Amino acid sequence: MDENKESSITDELVITIKNPSHISHQNPSTDIVKDETQSTVPESSSRSSEQNPLDFFGNLHIVVKPARLLKQAFEAICDPEFNPSGIGRIDLGEKCFTIVVLSPDNSLARLHLSDGDEIEVSCHETMATRMVNLREIFQNLSADDDDTIVLYHIQGMNKLSGYFGKYADHGFSTEFLQNTAVIPEFPSLPVLYLGVLKSDEFSALTEELMKNGKPQPVTVQIMRSSSRMTVGEQTITYNCSSLEEKIANETQMKGVTFYWPYAEALKKAALLYHLCAVGLTEEPANYALMLFGKELMVWFIKKPDN
Questions:
Q1: Where is the composition biased (Polar residues) (predicted)?
Q2: pLDDT for 237-291, tens place per residue?
């Protein structure tokens, strides 16, 4: 097992903990959530045996299969209520690709793709942070389960390009924007705990977010090995995994309360995988975290309103 990974087991689920590029190295965060019985795909099975010609001169090369996962993630971060401008900030790491978007109430969402069994991310050179119109990409993501999508950037070019399948005959591209938006970096906040629940249960709970046309308070609370999430008058209880040993010895429940008027963005992200995670960052910030997906992850982070 990679030295940057740790695992913790709940009653039914395994949370594999990794260190993505913008999370504190002292407190790793969940980057993959999967079933205990799910087998690991050998690395060789997810890599093409043919050399892609773009590898010789491209400084960014991303392969996602099935392509519908990327389409679903873009649908979440391009939700017109959460991201009215459709603008996103692109950051690159050696083996990760990140897009950060900002909501009208200063909440943040992050699409994180890391090199793994189902996604290939290769960065040959450092690329400065860029802004891009995500909707120009999203409108080209007409993908189904059998499609593979490739995104790439060629050194010296002012655009992000992509195509489906093995060849670039019918590709698309979008130009980088020139200082049209100010989107902060996704914060490096140590994660206190994460709780795993079924995505369909989470989606059902989001129906209460805008009851009678008014935002309802959302409360996330933890105590030892269990946690609960309350929206309005509806509550669900689920397992949690503390990333700090001190939490396991405490009896006092910790929690935050906030308002989240972007129910549709959460519903779209919940379709990425049948499990999701909800948690808190460490004090004094105590941000609420909502994580969706597997190797392709969408994160939402919200400051508490209490």
A1: 19-30
A2: 887 665 544 444 554 557 889 999 999 999 999 999 999 999 888 877 789 999 9
Domain boundaries, the chain: 6-38+188-302, 54-177
- Which of 46, 17, 16, 20 is CA-nearest to residue 34? 16
Paired tokens of 86: 């459709």
* Matching CATH number, 6-38+188-302, of 3.40.630.30, 3.10.150.10, 3.90.1520.10, 3.30.420.40: 3.10.150.10
Q: Which residue is it, tokens 């902060």?
A: 184
pLDDT digits (tens, 9 = 90+) for 127-158: 778 899 999 999 888 766 568 888 988 888 89
Long-range contacts for 287-294 (Cβ within 8 Å, ≥24 apart)?
Answer: 287/187, 287/189, 287/256, 288/218, 288/220, 288/256, 288/258, 289/29, 289/191, 289/194, 290/266, 291/29, 291/30, 291/33, 291/194, 292/76, 292/199, 293/69, 293/73, 293/269, 294/32, 294/33, 294/34, 294/118
User: Six-digit token pair at 177?
Assistant: 């924007």
- pTM of the full structure: 0.77
Taking the C-alpha atoms of residue 108 and residue 300, their distance in angstroms, rounded to an integer, is 6
Is 54-177 the same fold as 6-38+188-302?
A: yes
